[in-house]
Amino acid sequence: MLNSSILNKLNEQIKLEHFASNLYLSMSSWCKAQGLDGAADFLLKHSLEELDHMRKLFNYVNDSGAQAKISAIEEPESEFANIKELFESTMKHEVFITGKINELVDLALKEKDYSTFNFLQWYVSEQHEEEALFQQIVDKISVIGLDGRGLYLVDKEIGKLAAV
């Protein structure tokens, strides 16, 4: 059984993962409207992954004999100056989520909830991968640039990541 402090933090994380899914869906729509089909596909796929992260937390809470809560989420950002700003925003968001996962891990250890600690190890690893992935994209955008054919090449490179 989950204690109330762990349950509250897990339900908060469910909300954050739900928001992330909507954020990336919104970003996908922006990219599609800009003719950036590769980035749109990548972000759509990533939106679905975030929804899976939410579902995994939801199931863990319910399987632990508690009740997962689905809370209202705010409207995600939907306008960006350019694709570089968009992906810098995703990187910032992933760093924020990593911090929240780390807080959960710290709380699980403090509360001696080793089952939750063990469950959260997947998220620790996942966040490491997420930050590396988005940093790679931001770095590629910086190297390739957005001038001339740069934007076309950036979109193609991001689109390749959607296929992986």
UniProtKB/TrEMBL annotation:
<dbReference type="Pfam" id="PF00210">
    <property type="entry name" value="Ferritin"/>
</dbReference>
<comment type="function">
    <text>Iron-storage protein.</text>
</comment>
<dbReference type="InterPro" id="IPR009078">
    <property type="entry name" value="Ferritin-like_SF"/>
</dbReference>
<feature type="domain" description="Ferritin-like diiron">
    <location>
        <begin position="1"/>
        <end position="145"/>
    </location>
</feature>
<protein>
    <recommendedName>
        <fullName>Ferritin</fullName>
        <ecNumber>1.16.3.2</ecNumber>
    </recommendedName>
</protein>
<dbReference type="InterPro" id="IPR009040">
    <property type="entry name" value="Ferritin-like_diiron"/>
</dbReference>
<dbReference type="InterPro" id="IPR041719">
    <property type="entry name" value="Ferritin_prok"/>
</dbReference>
<keyword id="KW-0479">Metal-binding</keyword>
<dbReference type="InterPro" id="IPR001519">
    <property type="entry name" value="Ferritin"/>
</dbReference>
<dbReference type="InterPro" id="IPR008331">
    <property type="entry name" value="Ferritin_DPS_dom"/>
</dbReference>
<keyword id="KW-0560">Oxidoreductase</keyword>
<keyword id="KW-0408">Iron</keyword>
<keyword id="KW-0963">Cytoplasm</keyword>
<dbReference type="InterPro" id="IPR012347">
    <property type="entry name" value="Ferritin-like"/>
</dbReference>
<comment type="similarity">
    <text>Belongs to the ferritin family. Prokaryotic subfamily.</text>
</comment>
<keyword id="KW-0409">Iron storage</keyword>
